[in-house]
Here is the input.
Amino acid sequence: MQALAVVLAILALSPFLWLLVMSFKTNAEIFRWPPRLFFPPTLDNYAALWTSEFRTSFANSLVVSVASTAVSLVIGVPAAYALSRWTTRAGASITLWILASRMAPPIAFTIPYFLAYRYLELLDTLTGLVLIYLTFNLSLVIWMMRPFYDQLPRSLEEAAWIDGATMWQGFTRIILPLSGPGLAATAILCFLFAWNDFFFALILTRTDAMTAPVAVVNFMNYEGWEWGRIAAGGTMIMLPVLVFSFIVRRYLVSGLTGGAIKG
Amino acid sequence: MSTLRRRTILGGALGALAAPAVHAQGGKPHAGTTINASCFQTTYFEYLKNYFPQFEEKTGIKVNFTMQAFPVYNQRTDLELSTKGSAVDVCNVTFIYSGRWIGAGWFTNLDTFTRDKKYTPAEWEPQDFVGGAQSAMQNAKGETFGYTWEAGAMIAGAARYDLIEKAGLKMPTTFDELIKVCDAIHNKDNVAAFTADKLHHWNWIPYLMGMGGNVFKAPPENLTPTLATPQAAKSAEWYANLLVKYGPDGILSYSDDQSMRSQMSGRANIRTQAITWMVPLAKHAESTVRQTVRYGLMPAGPDGNFPGSNSHGLGIPAGSKKKEAAWEFIKWALSKETVSTVVKDHGYPSVCRMSVIKSPEFKQVLTLNGQDVASLFLEVLQLGGKTGYMKYRTVPVYPQVGDKINKAMERIATKQQAAPEAMKQAQAEAVQDLKKAGFKVDG
Here is the structure.
């Protein structure tokens, strides 16, 4: 059974391994026929990334993803808590409307966003990208965090209020620490959405705010593709996600399933 | 009366103040202007960027030139142009979109500039641009919306001509000869006989026309698709067979770069493609076939020879607010002197100025492995210009119709459908696209 699991894991990871191996080859080696299992590895592709505009784009991706994730959590988590504790019918319909930003494919929003951004002079700015990802991530945060708060007994914060805590103190000192796994899972999904986005970064940026996924495509020149750099860029793009997932892996599984069973 | 007097005095004072400023520009009316220019990643502009300081010194215009990957550029520019934005002052008129972009009125009519001596001196000579290449930059009335910097001319290239010679044969000049050569050399020395990329709507059409077919009835006037004809079905089946029988494994998913690399690495032999992807076989440092490559004209079919030709040009978006400065840039970037310099200094092979193409420097650049490829290049460009058979490629709906052709070819090559059925389906889908776009279709 274990052997089967290892085989399946290798199969699932083979595209990534192939990409990784390719990133250490020269273009000539990549297209060598028949391919060689052992070859002299090169770091030229990675070095070339660092002397191209990819470096700035990589930094842009980091800034935009971290900022949009942080702002989404700062706004979305208290909103999810409030909606969880709000016992009117309006609460349910508001929660549904919050999903509206996810009800249509991104292409449907392209022209309105593009025109609005041009008018607001937000095209090709990091602020513009953070705002876009915020609009999409906010619904994710609220919809993921609300079930967590639904399953936490109200008596916990009520006890804190009796001891003299304010509502905000009850939320930050009692409720928030209990929702760690949920926060970790939500944060990683928000980060992934912003980090991997290609479409909005393609449409709403030019050069200054270009993110890493778009920069990688720019290695596909008209007269020829730079395969080694594309592979190195792809590997670099995977890296922060792997690191981030590794750091929060303890919370990830419980976070993703935690809100699924109520009561 | 007193107001008028004050205005007159103020106007006079401002005029007096402005006069030295104009004089200080030293005949540079656009000094201090910054223009934004954009194109897809290409070597022509990589080379040209080296000379931007000369332009900036000459005109006082600063150029902010950005390049993106081909699909990224087209996507962004389509959006920018369709919303009549003013973010870009000069941009590439991409061949495959030229009909749509020009037809929709998204570019500035450049005749305004070329016909006025104030803007363009006679020696700039717009007529010096190759006619066939320029036709993609014009509308049905013959007005010009772009000037070409790149002309692609489809030729045949055999990466391992030595294998053809060894078989006692020569470069194929007809479709029948192509099959004969492929039969003789396929898999000899582990080299597949033929290679191509998955853009069948570009690669297959010369074979379609060579067998008496066409994409549309009479483009650009009558855009009724003619994909369900017996000629189209026969040609599609023939071409799909060429790919599957003589191509390397995975050929149906090859990008144009992968196909070029298959030749450069000596994995595949013959390809019919634009010269831009053929020159690296003889010149690229990573090419393993530099000593064995040989070029020829695209093989002819029973109905004639129709090698594909395309072109990309520079135009001024209709929304630009700096049109005169933008024209100054185009005028400089595509002047005989600049084009000639790029050819001489960097060996750029796909220029559109006839005077440069006929120059000894260009001939030297396109003498590849001892063969005069410059004359092949010119022959193809003139062929395309004479009969206008490339007009199918610049109609506004060709991107959509081309997509249907690609899918039909895949269905035939993978035996999912027989050629007549696949082409019939492509025809029906193309008609639907045309009707949706508001075009009249016969029958």
Notes: The longest strand of chain A covers residues 220-221.
